[in-house]
Design brief:
Elements lengths: L9 H9 L7 H11 L4 E4 L6 H16 L6 E4 L3 H14 L7 E4 L6 H12 L3 E4 L1 H8 L11 E4 L2 H6 L3 H8 L7 E6 L4 H10 L4 E5 L8 E7 L5 H10 L6 E4 L3 H13 L4 E4 L5 H12 L5 E4 L14 E4 L6 H8 L9 E7 L4 H11 L5 E2 L33 E5 L7
Parallel strand pairs: 1-6, 1-7, 2-4, 2-5, 3-4, 5-6, 7-15, 8-13, 8-14, 9-11, 9-12, 10-11, 12-13
Helix pairs in contact: 2-3, 3-4, 6-8, 13-14
Length: 413
């Protein structure tokens, strides 16, 4: 289905066309009519499927038709990078219409804080914000959202993982009770469904089946305890044809340790975590995209909402919390029928997560044990097993809202 088949305002369609959006993606085709109808929605789709445009386009259509001078839509996101990316996308779509937006994120209370405060007080059509920063502005007493018509929670699972649930509930209590609520999440664990039940009213559900990794990805699993991971990483990188690699670590404290170890071997590596300022993050990301250096070490702050693809390697220094996150991370390599390598280190406590990944992959991946041959001592033994070792059956069949399913067609080889 094409965008010009929707009953969108002609000026908005001009912006959509200018952004080279012609054919709707599956998530867009399923969700845009629901949003245009004013219904609440919970949608599950991987990052990269076009979900941002799926809610921005109907929001902008409402804005251009209502001609309101107050903030009518609030989009909450987990990271400043995603907030900025959405703000830039709004700017593109709204080129031919009179719609404004502002991204609210950051740490300190300097000039940037004052600029954000003024924008919030005077209003913009769409506010995109990280929960903590927005709550800080709201605590000043100057910011009011009395005219919000639509609330969007983007990457809802990541926001809950980052501990934003209380902040989100604080913000929601200060919004009009009568509003449209849209929740988008890459994964749909029980905590997301429970959270959705608190804020959504008779929602429609759209759930896209998680796509499988590209055939060109060489998935390698290595058993290693935490003290063996860095020397194992160094060994694997020495023998690899590294063009561009992201190393994901779940611990901020490990970022500098990994970088120091790689720098000693004359590898140019840089890191990103939530401790970095916005300017530092932007500089590091820009230089990485421009091939100024090959190795980027990052926490989960970089796992979603960042447009970095076509990597030669993705390395999971720690096993991702969710199986869907694993699929998304390694999907950044082997794009457009190329090949790539995805390496994952498995310690003893993360083994149950591997079983979840293999269940989603619908196959078992060989676990390699090479630490002893490298003089690093024995690696943890991989213990097969099911629920008793931590892989629990889903209870997602309970209290399900109305849903629409879409399973993408298999690509021909």
């Amino acid at each position: 289905m094409q965008f010009n088949e929707l009953n969108l305002h002609e000026n908005l369609l001009s912006g959509v066309d200018a952004m080279n959006y012609i054919q709707m993606s599956p998530i867009q085709e399923l969700t845009i009519p629901i949003i245009l109808a004013g219904k609440d929605l919970i949608a599950s789709a991987q990052t990269g499927t076009g979900k941002t445009a799926a809610y921005l386009i109907p929001l902008l259509d409402h804005i251009i038709r209502s001609q309101s001078n107050q903030t009518s839509a609030l989009v909450l996101v987990p990271t400043r990078e995603l907030a900025k990316q959405i703000d830039e996308q709004i700017e593109g779509f709204s080129y031919f219409i009179n719609a404004t937006s502002i991204a609210i994120y950051g740490g300190g209370k300097g000039e940037e804080w004052d600029q954000q405060r003024k924008a919030l007080v005077h209003g913009a059509d769409i506010i995109i914000a990280t929960p903590g920063r927005l709550m800080a502005h709201m605590n000043s007493g100057e910011v009011k959202f009395d005219h919000i018509k639509c609330l969007v929670l983007d990457e809802a699972d990541k926001m809950l993982d980052m501990g934003f649930s209380d902040d989100i509930l604080f913000i929601l209590k200060r919004l009009p009770a009568k509003r449209q609520n849209l929740m988008f999440s890459a994964t749909m664990p029980k905590k997301i469904r429970d959270f959705a039940n608190k804020i959504l009213h008779n929602p429609e559900e759209v759930r896209l089946a998680t796509s499988k990794p590209a055939e060109g990805i060489d998935q390698q699993f290595y058993l290693a305890n935490d003290t063996q991971k860095i020397p194992l990483l160094v060994h694997l990188l020495k023998d690899a044809d590294v063009q561009s690699v992201i190393i994901f670590s779940s611990q901020k404290a490990m970022i500098d340790k990994i970088i120091r170890s790689l720098t000693k071997l004359k590898w140019d590596a840089r890191g990103i975590s939530s401790d970095n300022s916005q300017e530092e993050r932007e500089n590091v990301l820009r230089d990485f995209k421009n091939k100024q250096y090959k190795i980027l070490v990052a926490t989960d702050v970089l796992s979603r909402g960042i447009d970095i693809n076509n990597l030669s390697h993705v390395i999971n220094f720690d096993v991702p919390r969710d199986a869907e996150d694993y699929i998304h991370r390694i999907g950044r390599t082997a794009r457009a029928e190329t090949t790539g390598t995805a390496i994952t280190f498995i310690n003893e406590k993360d083994q149950y997560r591997i079983r979840g990944i293999e269940k989603l992959l619908e196959k078992e991946v060989e676990k390699q044990n090479i630490t002893e041959s490298l003089g690093l001592g024995p690696a943890p033994e991989f213990k097969s097993g099911g629920e008793k070792n931590g892989f629990k059956k889903s209870n997602s069949h309970k209290n399900k809202p109305k849903r629409k399913f879409f399973r993408p067609a298999k690509k021909s080889s």
